């Protein structure tokens, strides 16, 4: 009898231990995954009623939590005081459609559920208080952000402003934008209508044109070719064959110059300033595909840079396969020559083209871009702080040469419309034809000194002639206004 009792006690004890072990496993090991499970309705309800942390641009609050209107199911409401200007940075916090952009990338910090915030949650629980989420401090300058948005106006386009020495993004504007307050509303029956209107809008306001979309970069891609040429031993004074037009190999198509480049030879510096197509077509044939691909990848092509905002990888001699993966391409001579004009399988985001200029300006060192400086609790304890990271994209001497060559674009080349009196600037204009009968894309990427800043301006489907000079005339005044806003104030 005693033996049977001992056996029952042993089995019972093992079952209790198994139960305790299972409870411990769920409470510790699986807690986060269970809480983040989209099917966990209890978590969704609890998180939507939390005192979510702020998102800040300088001292400007761009996402906040306030008291909800009385009579509703929840006591707190997520709001975006400057919704349209910052929508592609903050994203939204929606009961039905979840989170987007920074609201998604820093969700656990903002909600106060990150493992690094356990002490704050414990103290709040002991005091009978509701835990308060941490605040996310962005790198965005409110003046530059609002200037960029105002300059784009009703255009479909983007502007990126960044610090080339650190990689900090000072403005990231994308138009058209949208109001995230409509998706964060407690009027839940209206949210599907708001969402459907945004999805069905042909202007695609949810698209982040600054970082999440890629486009043919036009002649701004000549910066990549010029960098590869300098690496191969060319100098600013190297003479390059520059006929008025050139026949593409194995083709009946001719590639003309769209600016006054003459019909002979031109220096590399002149060819860049005047954006001579035939100069760069001959140059890329001499350099070869691998030299260009290598230089483009050194500038950051074929990889992502800003996961916080879900950026798309810019592509250089790559294409997307059926699974959405980047696959290397092998251009023939005609395709290679068109790539010098930012066509064929070359596609870049405005962020990526800003990074190209930033590396040139920063002595060839490419600083990884970032949009969040730090995350802090209500008692100012730092939970996260950005750590700078860099790679070497160019030899410092070659970068200095190319930086100097870019001044010709602004001072006497295709981009004179961007000049700011008393400011040393360099840049590159670009125009990209992307579909027959459609208006071209217009680009201008540039730097200014004292203080050092890089700006990329992109206008989609611009109603201008398909020349770099016309593109510079359109985007130059926009760039000038943004540069002026970066000056000390």
Q: Helix content range of the residues, please?
A: 25-40%
CATH topology of the domain at 218-369 and 390-486: Beta-lactamase
CATH architecture of the domain at 218-369 and 390-486: 3-Layer(aba) Sandwich
Low-confidence spans: none
The end-to-end distance, rounded to whole angstroms, is: 91 Å
Kindly report the name of the CATH homologous superfamily of the domain at 218-369 and 390-486: DD-peptidase/beta-lactamase superfamily
The biggest sheet amounts to: 6 strands, mixed
Approximately how much beta-strand content do the residues carry? 15-25%
CATH level 1 class label of the domain at 218-369 and 390-486: Alpha Beta
Question: Shape, please?
Answer: elongated
Give the neighbour order of strands across the main sheet.
3-2-1-6-18-19
Average of pLDDT: 90
**Rg calc:** 27 Å
Number of E-state strands: 23
Number of helices: 18
Structural class: alpha+beta
Secondary structure elements and pairings:
Elements: H1 2-29, H2 31-36, H3 41-48, E1 55-57, E2 60-67, E3 76-79, H4 83-90, E4 93-94, E5 98-99, H5 101-105, H6 107-111, H7 118-126, E6 135-138, H8 142-152, E7 157-162, E8 169-175, H9 181-184, H10 191-200, H11 222-231, E9 239-242, E10 245-247, E11 254-256, E12 264-267, H12 268-273, H13 277-287, H14 289-298, E13 315-316, E14 318-320, E15 326-328, H15 333-339, E16 346-347, H16 350-361, E17 365-367, E18 372-376, E19 382-385, E20 390-392, H17 396-411, E21 425-432, E22 441-448, E23 453-459, H18 468-486
Parallel strand pairs: 1-6
Antiparallel strand pairs: 1-2, 2-3, 4-5, 6-18, 7-8, 7-23, 9-12, 10-11, 13-16, 14-15, 17-20, 18-19, 21-22, 22-23
Helix pairs in contact: 8-18, 11-13, 11-14, 11-17, 13-15, 16-17
């Amino acid at each position: 009898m005693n033996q049977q009792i001992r056996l029952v006690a042993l089995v019972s004890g093992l079952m209790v231990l198994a139960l305790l072990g299972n409870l411990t496993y769920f409470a510790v090991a699986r807690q986060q995954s269970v809480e983040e499970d989209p099917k966990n309705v209890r978590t969704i309800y609890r998180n939507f009623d939390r005192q979510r942390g702020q998102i800040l641009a300088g001292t400007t609050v761009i996402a906040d939590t306030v008291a909800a209107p009385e009579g509703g199911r929840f006591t707190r409401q997520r709001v975006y005081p400057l919704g349209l200007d910052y929508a592609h940075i903050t994203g939204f916090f929606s009961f039905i459609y979840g989170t987007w952009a920074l609201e998604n990338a820093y969700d656990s910090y903002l909600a106060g559920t990150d493992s690094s915030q356990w002490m704050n949650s414990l103290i709040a629980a002991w005091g009978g208080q509701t835990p308060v989420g941490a605040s996310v401090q962005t790198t965005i300058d409110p003046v530059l952000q609002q200037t960029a948005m105002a300059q784009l106006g009703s255009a479909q386009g983007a502007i990126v402003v960044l610090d080339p020495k650190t990689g900090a993004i000072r403005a990231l504007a994308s138009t058209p934008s949208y109001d995230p307050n409509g998706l964060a509303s407690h009027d839940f029956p209206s949210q599907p209508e708001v969402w459907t209107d945004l999805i069905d809008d042909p202007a695609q306001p949810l698209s982040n044109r600054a970082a999440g979309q890629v486009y043919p970069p036009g002649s701004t891609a000549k910066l990549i070719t010029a960098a590869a040429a300098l690496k191969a031993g060319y100098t600013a004074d190297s003479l390059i064959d520059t006929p008025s037009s050139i026949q593409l190999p194995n083709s009946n198509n001719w590639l003309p110059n769209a600016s006054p480049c003459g019909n002979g030879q031109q220096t590399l510096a002149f060819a860049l300033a005047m954006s001579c197509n035939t100069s760069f077509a001959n140059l890329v044939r001499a350099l070869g595909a691998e030299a260009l691909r290598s230089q483009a990848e050194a500038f950051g092509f074929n990889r992502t840079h800003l996961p916080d905002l879900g950026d798309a990888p810019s592509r250089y001699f790559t294409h997307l396969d059926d699974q959405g993966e980047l696959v290397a391409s092998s251009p023939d001579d005609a395709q290679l020559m068109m790539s010098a004009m930012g066509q064929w399988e070359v596609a870049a985001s405005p962020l990526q083209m800003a990074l190209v200029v930033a590396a040139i300006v920063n002595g060839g060192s490419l600083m990884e871009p970032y949009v969040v400086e730090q995350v802090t609790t209500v008692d100012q304890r730092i939970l996260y702080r950005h750590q700078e990271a860099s790679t070497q994209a160019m030899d410092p001497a070659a970068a200095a040469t190319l930086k100097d060559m870019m001044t010709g674009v602004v001072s006497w080349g295709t981009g004179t419309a961007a000049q700011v009196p008393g400011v040393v600037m360099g840049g590159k204009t670009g125009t990209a034809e992307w579909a027959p009968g459609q208006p071209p894309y217009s680009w201008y990427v540039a730097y200014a000194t004292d203080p050092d800043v890089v700006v990329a301006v992109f206008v989609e489907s611009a109603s201008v002639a398909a020349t770099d000079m016309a593109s510079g005339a359109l985007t130059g005044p926009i760039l000038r206004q943004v540069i002026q806003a970066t000056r000390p104030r």
